[in-house]
């Protein structure tokens, strides 16, 4: 399959080729993908397929630059999240619910995303996708009307890939870099609840087990170092590609805070004037939540609202964030210092899954007991590059 270009437009030749003359595991139904699109498609598909297998629920992912901005399974939406995701009153199928959750985790980063769905794409999912800024989708199949809707998106350039759900890659994988070939065993470990058996502090709830499994699968396909926060069947913050693990923890926690503040009544009650585009509404809500609007932004936001702009106060922000609770944290490598636990506790974390094996494990466990956090040692590192 000839691709649009490589990682950058000046890398004009790029192609997707089967191994050893075999058959490609994907079929292009619409559009022209680039090399980065294919990296997103293939990683995202593996994530949702593994989540579907592990949790028995339709799964979705929103990918950007070879890491998920969000991932979720089909857990029904409470009323406030339906409002926050602008789907209140809509009839959502399980597949659509999974993607609405995945995209709603970090809507700023999901702008122009690559979508992956574990199940056949139905009309409800295609109708939601029609109204958001997205570049393409991969799934095992499409209803006829859904395919027509998606093929017409972006003036007919929206990328639609159909994957062979039964395809199994070889046991080894290779990558060419700077004139050499790197070869390794593929990461064939399938994450499941069995990876949560070694609970070293506290106890896990059924909801935490679901969220920890989802989180471990999500970071398995996230650029390392990575830490993720999960709640209610979806990722709510992912810190990817940081050199310091505590920076991953802080970044993911900051994203989780923005997600949680999106449920604040003052955010939900922002009334935009008729004609303000969906993505503009999303961007303004995020800027409102972030709370560091410059005077020109305050004036511009006031212009698109139907009511006078009333900002969140520091006390309102603090009080609302204090309500975030029951969050699960996952780490792709062992937690080396207790500062990760101190920061995690500030974002409502009550459950942690990490490999363990640090020389400071006893210190990490003591910090978890101090904060009332249950922790699992998975003995499983999930670096991904």
Key structural traits:
385 residues, alpha/beta, Cytidine Deaminase, domain 2, 3 domains, six-stranded mixed beta sheet, 36% helix
Secondary structure elements and their pairing?
Elements: E1 26-30, H1 35-55, E2 59-64, E3 67-73, H2 79-84, H3 94-104, E4 113-117, H4 123-130, E5 134-139, H5 144-152, E6 159-163, E7 172-177, E8 180-185, E9 199-201, H6 206-220, E10 226-231, E11 234-240, H7 245-261, H8 265-268, H9 278-290, H10 295-304, H11 314-321, E12 327-331, H12 339-345, E13 349-354, H13 361-371, E14 374-377
Parallel strand pairs: 4-5, 5-6, 12-13, 13-14
Antiparallel strand pairs: 1-6, 2-3, 2-4, 7-8, 9-14, 10-11, 10-12
Helix pairs in contact: 1-6, 3-4, 4-5, 7-12
CATH superfamily descriptor of the largest domain? AICAR transformylase, duplication domain
Q: Which regions have little confidence, pLDDT < 50, spanning 5+ residues?
A: none
- Major β-sheet profile: 6 strands, mixed
Please identify the structural class as seen in this structure: alpha/beta
- Calculate the mean pLDDT score and round it: 96
> What proportion of the residues form beta strands (DSSP E)?
15-25%
Based on CA inertia axes, which overall geometry fits?
globular
Order of helical and strand elements: EHEEHHEHEHEEEEHEEHHHHHEHEHE
Task: Please count the helical segments.
Answer: 13
Percent in helix:
25-40%
CA radius of gyration: 21 Å
- The CATH architecture category of the largest domain equals 3-Layer(aba) Sandwich
Distance between the first and last residues' Cα: 24 Å
Overall domain count: 3
Looking across the biggest beta sheet, what order are the strands in? 1-6-5-4-2-3
What is the strand tally?
Answer: 14
Topology-level CATH name of the largest domain: Cytidine Deaminase, domain 2
**Name of the level-1 CATH class of the largest domain:** Alpha Beta
